[in-house]
Amino acid sequence: MRSLTVRRDGTGLCYGDESPADRDAHGVLWSRLTEAPGLGKPDFRAVHPARQRRAALNGLCQVCGGPASRTARGWLFLFPHPGPDTLSPDWPEGVLCPKPPVCVLCADTALRHCPHLTAPVAVRSRKPRPRGVYGDGYLPGPDGRLLRVPSDGYLPYGHRDSRWFLATQLVLELRRCTVVDLASDIVG
């Protein structure tokens, strides 16, 4: 059985047929989706949890799955231009990013096709580090069913609610950042 349920001791979430691969190194439970590369129709609005985590942890391109672009200035990340409500004086230093890096070829493709990358900003980070997860929190309801807990979706590693959280994306904190001009960064 692949259903999400409450642990027998009542202390958190689990799968009925859970395996060690269902949790990350911090003990957080991850959402399951079928692995079938090349089959079906891509849904660019949804992120495959296992592929996203693998790309973020291993410096792989979020689009093609090959090696992401890495230079002396760091890994390449793309962002929509930050609005005034998210722009801080030291942005992008310390930004929490659920998107893995990209390779140069896919960066060009993303800039041409992704509707979220209007007025894009290219950032190189020398120290992207896992800091938490994005997903949903749950609690057992009075009828025994799991109830989704409203939140902003981000949970830092080590948080007391991690036992009741189902992760869908790894969140990286980007450090030692440089904003780059993508055209000259690719050539140079």
Tell me about this structure:
With 188 residues, this protein is an alpha+beta fold. Helices cover 14% and strands 32% of the residues. Strands 3, 4, 5, 6, 7, 8, 9 and 10 form an eight-stranded mixed beta sheet that branches. It has a two-stranded antiparallel ribbon with strand order 1-2. The mean pLDDT is 88.
Mean pLDDT: 88
Low-pLDDT runs: none
Largest sheet: 8 strands, mixed
State the helix count.
3
Structural class: alpha+beta
Helix content: 10-25%
Radius of gyration: 18 Å
Tell the overall outline. elongated
Overall number of strands: 10
How far apart lie the N and C ends?
Answer: 52 Å
Number of domains: 1
Estimated share of beta-strand residues: 25-35%
Helix-strand topology string: EEEHEEEHEEEEH
List keywords for this structure.
188 residues; alpha+beta; eight-stranded mixed β-sheet; two-stranded antiparallel sheet; elongated
Can you lay out the helices and strands and say which pair or pack?
Blueprint: E1 4-6, E2 13-15, E3 29-30, H1 49-58, E4 70-71, E5 74-79, E6 96-97, H2 104-113, E7 121-140, E8 146-149, E9 154-156, E10 165-180, H3 182-187
Parallel strand pairs: 3-10
Antiparallel strand pairs: 1-2, 4-5, 5-7, 6-10, 7-8, 7-9, 7-10
